[in-house]
Amino acid sequence: MHIVMIGTGYVGLVSGACFADFGHEVICVDKDQSKIDALLSGEIPIFEPGLDELVAKNVEAGRLSFTLDLAQALPNADAVFIAVGTPSRRGDGHADLSYVYAAAQEMAPLLPAGVVVVDKSTVPVGTGDEVERIIREEAPELEFSVASNPEFLREGAAIDDFKRPDRVVIGVNDDHAMRVLEEIYRPLTRNESPLVSMSRRGAELTKYAANAFLATKISFINEIADLCEKVGTDVRDVAKGIGLDSRIGNRFLMPGPGYGGSCFPKDTLALLKTGQDYEAPLRIVESVVASNDQRKRSMGRKVVQAMGGGEQHGKTVAVLGLTFKANTDDMRDSPAISVVQALQDAGIRVKAYDPEGMEQAAKVLNNVTYCEGAYDALDGADAAVIVTEWDAFRALDLERVKDLLKAPLLVDLRNLYSRRDVEDHGFTYVAVGR
Fold it and tell me: Other CB atoms closer than 10 Å to residue 101's CB: what's the count?
């Protein structure tokens, strides 16, 4: 199949490379000259484990290419995937669909007959209807279909998620679109990956509902963790006890500093706005959003309190991990932002290290000393706080850490360590829900 992917961001580049690896011919299109130039020279603009090798392999095989020229890419397309950004719109939290609609309008006069236009971007209910209207207005004689095929990719594990998915959701309103998408995903169905078909609006809502539910699980276990601290028990035991129930499951029951990233924050807000627009308020999701906002702010206060509370002018904290999760360089809505700002508000100087995220962090966090490694950050600090669960922080040399710190205080916001092991090395250990 001939596939055109509009957008070479996280979703577009991962999806395009994986489709090419299935054997399809894929052309990725973007308006950003610097991004296309980088890709043409073999540079990957995002960090995702294994993506550089996958792109290089399929470029070399001639199945994957990159261009700025939409007109050059479209003539032979069987399917055109829209994979552009849908950030939260300033003011009301609704998804900004301007990039989606602009892509639809620009491609309309260039589309070949029989093409299937697929929304891969995360979009609110009814977006596919508007995309179809825009294309039909620009090209009234064209025979085409519009479908929804939301992505369910975890940053840091996106390639495996694409190739071994729990499910592939296809939202279509006609048989032709379904046949084309079935052919595109045929390599997956041979491995019995379930292809779930539904209406276009159903697929659009499924994506938001899935992310909102996962965000709810995270916020729930974080609040239970707070209760565990008050009553004197261990949230890990509680999480295991409820997670073994097959109706609940054990995933997304790890307490921490709150959720962040490119999906959950903006998707929960967009879902709330959709509920308001359709007069179906989502009270649970409203509470989840509020709980998570409070959670991120409270983690900074937790560190300050562990240091004695109040103003801590002249003190220094080593922050280990800045990205919203491990195995990504994504700083969007990272809990580390709130933690660092809370420390700075208390007069604390911050030294920080992250294996991949410091370049992005420097764009959103000021007055931070960025270090070359974990031990460099720890050297001379009055306390250490683990914010992101990078593997590099799971087996620190605790004796060396103790020698480097002015005071042996470790605040572990990801529960990476055993309290007994840390305290046996002479530390004061503060964890989450324990």
Answer: 17
Other C-beta atoms closer than 10 Å to the C-beta of 153 total 20
Q: What DSSP line would sit under 115-167, residue for residue? A: EEEEE-S---TTHHHHHHHHHHHH-TT--EEEEE----PPTTSHHHHHHS-S-
Helix (H, G, I), strand (E, B) or coil at 44: coil
Give the whole-angstrom CA distance, residue 2 versus residue 48.
25
Q: Which pLDDT value is given to residue 189?
A: 82
What is the CATH number that goes with domain 208-290? Answer: 1.10.1040.10
- Helix, coil or strand: residue 183: helix
Question: If you average pLDDT over residues 276-297, what whole number do you get?
Answer: 97
State the DSSP code for 314: T
Among the residue ranges 184-198, 199-213, 274-288, 366-380, the one predicted with the least confidence is 184-198
pLDDT for res 94: 87
Give the whole-angstrom CA distance, residue 150 versus residue 170: 8
CATH number at 295-430: 3.40.50.720
Average pLDDT for residues 47-59, to the nearest whole number?
96
Can you read off the two tokens belonging to residue 6?
Answer: 């509009």
* Homologous superfamily, domain 2-198: NAD(P)-binding Rossmann-like Domain (3.40.50.720)
Active-site position among 18, 28, 228, 263: 263
- pTM assigned to the model: 0.93
Strand, coil or helix: 185: coil
E strands, 77-129, are 79-82, 115-119
* pLDDT tens-digit readout, 153-171: 999 999 999 999 999 999 9
Pairing of strands 428-430, 316-320: unpaired
For residue range 66-96, what is the model confidence (pLDDT) as tens digits? 999 999 999 999 999 999 999 998 777 789 9
Alpha carbons 161 and 193: distance in angstroms, whole number:
11
Q: Name every residue whose Cβ is closer than 8 Å to that of residue 347 and which is 6 or more positions away in sequence.
A: 311, 312, 313, 314, 315
How far, in whole angstroms, is CA 7 from its chain's centroid? 17
Distance, in Å, from the CA atom of 204 to the CA atom of 245, rounded to the nearest integer, reads: 29
- The answer to whether residue 18 is catalytic is no
